[in-house]
């Protein structure tokens, strides 16, 4: 069966072409000028539309156990919602908890995902217990296609690693060529401010944003970079939110270090103000926190995306309900009267592509090629999936989205597909709408309807990063 996407404008990270895309066996087999005589089995008309590589979200947490509950989206609901929003690959985080083998943690996450995903998926590994066995398992995991490891300078007593543990893991990553993904916030210092705020009776969600100071993200980023430098590891800073942290990344890259970073839509579009309004602010509690707009963080992040000081936009999708979740019960409300007990995380996997298209391309902050680069191509290269994923080229998987740049729609929890009872962008009007989504050549979303089934998505063993400086 062949499929032809006809009359659209094909955009990759480097090109914009008036071309028809011929698909066979789940892959792109030709990019054709308009004057051809191909008669496919199936045709999709993309007149007036953009034909783009499917989005790759390299930072999601489906079913993450966190803060006394679980992230509300399963691999089934979360990947279906991703597909609706034009994301055709995710890289989620498998978890090694204290005292557990990393390999066993990865196997558990493979089990959660197997047969349930709407789109293809890979895994990073959260290394929550660095010891001799874990270091050996890091190498084994690389052979299984888990080529990146997330470490936390935040969350003491949960996922936190001290500098010695980080050095040991980085030494191993440097040896194997794998990547260390770092949650860069000084959790030890932050916890002092948390306790002091609570002692003063400052319990509302807004204080989550106030105590997690941006300078402590900058400090942690600096330390992570220096530890990466001394060990020779490749470092990827996740969910970067603060200008102080971006300055550290810029300096490191100017010094020629293998340092990269992502930011997320919430840091580009939302701010500390959203954490106000009493307990409503719990919707926006994530770490790092939303930053003070007046301090210029957002503008600096956009600038970083334009200048390639930031290379990727991911979501850090980690939804928790405001009301009771049917299976997990109380979620955000766990933090009534104590902001430090609000499960950290926000929904977003469904919104990323349209938010960045609207706020980036439609509003003139970035061009179309850069949009593709930061949402699909560089994510694929960063985590060893290119050119199978992340572009439209002969031999690539036909993970393709058709986006109408003129169509508008309004984001709402009433219409989204994520299993969470609120939207962080409720009522926002988007210009630019993902209309059709193909995964490996099959239309899985069109006419606002899902045509796939759980298990269409398969595990992607990944290679090493293709983004070294
Ligand atoms: O608040 C967040 N970001 N929750 C998810 C876990 C993490 O730190 O990425
Ligand atoms: Zn994190
Ligand atoms: Zn995360």
Topology diagram in text:
Layout: E1 2-6, E2 9-11, E3 16-18, E4 20-24, E5 27-32, E6 42-45, E7 50-53, E8 55-60, E9 65-66, E10 69-70, H1 75-84, E11 87-96, H2 102-113, E12 120-127, H3 132-143, E13 148-152, H4 163-176, E14 179-183, H5 187-199, H6 206-211, H7 214-231, E15 234-237, H8 243-254, E16 259-263, H9 265-269, H10 297-307, E17 312-313, H11 352-362, H12 368-382, E18 400-410, E19 429-439, E20 442-446, E21 449-450
Bound molecules: N-(aminocarbonyl)-beta-alanine and zinc ion (ZN) (2 copies).
One zinc ion binds next to loops.
Outline the structure in words:
By secondary structure, the chain is of the alpha/beta class. It has helices at residues 75-84, 102-113, 132-143, 163-176, 187-199, 206-211, 214-231, 243-254, 265-269, 297-307, 352-362, 368-382; strands at 2-6, 9-11, 16-18, 20-24, 27-32, 42-45, 50-53, 55-60, 65-66, 69-70, 87-96, 120-127, 148-152, 179-183, 234-237, 259-263, 312-313, 400-410, 429-439, 442-446, 449-450. Strands 8-11-12-13-14-15-16-17 form an eight-stranded parallel beta sheet. Strand 19 and strand 20 form a beta hairpin. Helix 4 packs across helix 7 and helix 7 packs parallel to helix 8 (243-254). Bound molecules: N-(aminocarbonyl)-beta-alanine and zinc ion (2 copies). Residues 61, 183, 239, 286-287, 316, 318, 344-345 line the site of N-(aminocarbonyl)-beta-alanine. Residues 183, 238-239 line the site of one zinc ion.
